[in-house]
Specification:
The complex is a heterodimer of chains A (90) and B (454). Chain A has 90 residues and is mainly alpha-helical. In chain A, 49% of the residues lie in helices and 9% in strands. Classes of the chains: A mainly alpha (90), B alpha/beta (454). The complex binds pyridoxal-5'-phosphate (PLP). Pyridoxal-5'-phosphate (PLP) binds next to helix 12 of chain B.
């Protein structure tokens, strides 16, 4: 197995963030998993599909690529989670 | 004399926002609570938003009065000018008439203050002392910072750390307007601390910044959260753009055949086209064309299919209608940050599904080519997102040249690109690459969607 860090220094412009980022960012920005858009961004630049298969399990890949929820639903979900956090901290 | 600008007197600025929900042929599908499966109600949202905005989110009143205090602030830059693009028309040698409504003259340089000011106001009225939000490159964060400054509301902006480090100018705007802008992950929230423990040098992400902003708002009684696009109330506040334009087009003795605009979360373009669309819905202007422009690399609308979203893999979340390209769809990179979101405003998806609006996709190189043409004819350095509209307006004008028709094209120009010059530089130095998702990849992604009857 090749090192997970082997492409880390490669740079790309990230349209979501609006600036240049390295591959390390792209492979870990999604709560330490790769960004959902990583394959599109890196296609043709590195063997991104091979990289993902090599370093991530099938359930992890599923988790990465599920489509985002409608905004209001995802906000309610975050809100419920944050309420839980506040209660536990009391 | 050829008139190139149409000014509206301040006293003639519209005093009501237009709510399309009153005129929809079918109502919007409800949003369901992820835990209960029941429609989300006002109480569910109360920790995040003031009641007035929650009411606006679901309101079916056609007109909503713009509070006098908000109008007063709007008048610091509104009404914005409607331009006739004579020089562009001449360069294209087209018989088409091209107009553009330019939102780049707001103090923050885009349409975003139209909702930022309103949101800051309603929160202040409800006794909220502090707002939180997230920002990527800082366009929304800076607009909200300005809105909050006008109403003495404190603002904390969680800015994705990698942008915070790399893009100081928008951060400096935010701080000048009085906001507290921190890099996300921050030590100020549990979500941030957890990430910093795992990875002290974490460069952040938009998702994490949203989590931090929501957590901060939910855990403090004096604080709410604010969002700059997608939601119905945000689109509503933007309709001041289209309501003004209607009056200005009347001054020009013109009515648009085609309205074009870029769609990120959809707020600017909806703000322009919704006030016109009521003429199409009523049957008065059945031929009016509304064209949403999105990047070829992220074809949410143009190639998306209407399917039931299966939520998470464990099947725990309720099935919701939305546009989706399937879970393996991954759009390639483009330079227009705001256009990259997979999720679109529900109102726009709904109108698209009803066949009332169209969508087209544009390649990013051609988009910047259009931006440069616009700069060299009209003078304005267009933001990467509205360069999409300019591109499609040019295409339509060239079609008129071929057919000899003199159509009236209206561009919803959302802002300038003064903080996006690196993207222009990449185009001018030949570093921009176009990515078009191969048809096979789209088909494969769509075939992986769960099949749901209906
Ligand atoms: C100038 C400009 N136009 C358009 C957009 C896209 O957003 P929306 O579709 O909500 O107007 C953005 C987003 O940041 C923007 O900054």
């Amino acid at each position: 197995m090749e090192s997970i860090e082997r492409y880390d220094e490669n740079m790309i412009r990230c349209p979501r963030v609006g600036g240049y980022v390295n591959f390390k960012f792209c492979r870990s920005e999604n709560n330490l998993l790769p960004c959902r858009w990583v394959t599109g961004c890196w296609q043709g630049k590195i063997d991104i599909n091979g990289f993902l298969k090599e370093h991530f399990s099938a359930p992890e890949l599923e988790k990465i690529f599920i489509p985002p929820k409608p905004k209001l639903e995802s906000l309610v979900e975050l809100l419920e989670k944050a309420k839980g956090t506040a209660k536990k901290d009391e | 004399m050829k008139r190139a600008m149409y000014f509206l007197e301040q006293k003639d600025m519209p005093t009501r926002w237009y709510n399309i929900q009153a005129d929809l042929p079918e109502p919007l599908p409800p949003v369901l609570h992820p835990a209960t499966g029941q429609p989300v109600g006002p109480d569910d949202l109360a920790p995040l938003f003031p009641m007035e905005l929650i009411k606006q989110e679901v309101s079916t009143e056609r007109w909503i009065e713009i509070p006098e205090e908000v109008q007063e602030i709007y008048r610091t830059w509104r009404p914005t000018v409607l331009h006739r693009a004579y020089r562009l028309e001449k360069a294209l040698d087209t018989p088409a008439k091209i107009f553009y409504k330019y939102e780049g003259t707001s103090q923050a340089g885009s349409h975003k203050p139209n909702t930022a000011v309103a949101q800051a106001y309603y929160n202040m009225k409800e006794g909220i002392k502090r707002l939180t939000t997230e920002t990527g490159a800082g366009q929304w964060g800076s607009a909200l910072a300005m809105g909050c400054a006008f109403f003495d509301v404190e603002l904390k902006v969680y800015m994705v750390r990698i942008s915070y480090d790399q893009k100081p100018y928008r951060r400096i705007l935010m701080e000048t307007w009085g906001a507290n802008c921190v890099p996300s992950p921050s030590p100020d929230t549990k979500a941030g601390r957890e990430m910093l423990e795992k990875w002290p040098d974490c460069p952040g992400s938009l998702g994490l910044a949203i989590s931090e902003a929501v957590e901060d708002a939910v855990t403090r009684d004096d604080t709410h959260y604010s969002l700059g696009s997608v939601l119905n109330h945000v689109l509503l506040h933007q309709t001041i753009i289209g309501e003004e334009t209607r009056k200005q087009m009347e001054m020009a003795d013109a009515y648009p055949d085609i309205i074009v605009g870029c769609i990120g979360g959809g707020s600017n373009f909806a703000g322009q086209f919704l006030p016109w669309l009521r003429d199409k819905i009523s049957g008065e202007k059945p031929d009016l064309r509304v064209v949403c422009v999105e990047p070829e690399s992220c074809p949410t609308m143009t190639r998306g299919i209407y399917a039931y979203d299966f939520g998470d893999t464990a099947g725990m979340t309720p099935l919701l209608k939305m546009h989706t390209l399937g879970h393996s769809f991954v759009p390639p990179p483009i330079h227009a940050g705001g256009l990259r979101y997979h999720g679109m405003a529900p109102i726009i998806c709904h109108l698209y599904n009803l066949g009332l609006i169209e969508a087209v996709a544009a390649h990013q190189t051609s988009v910047f080519e259009a931006g440069v043409k616009f700069a060299r004819t009209e003078g304005i350095i267009t933001g990467p997102e509205p360069c999409h509209d300019v591109k499609v307006a040019i295409d339509e004008a060239l079609k008129c040249k071929e057919s000899g028709e003199s159509k009236t094209i209206l561009i919803a120009h959302s802002g300038h690109g003064h903080f996006d010059l690196a993207a222009y530089d990449a185009y001018l130095t030949g570093k921009l690459k176009d990515f078009a998702l191969p048809e096979d990849d789209i088909k494969k992604a769509q075939s992986e969607l769960p099949k749901v009857p209906g």
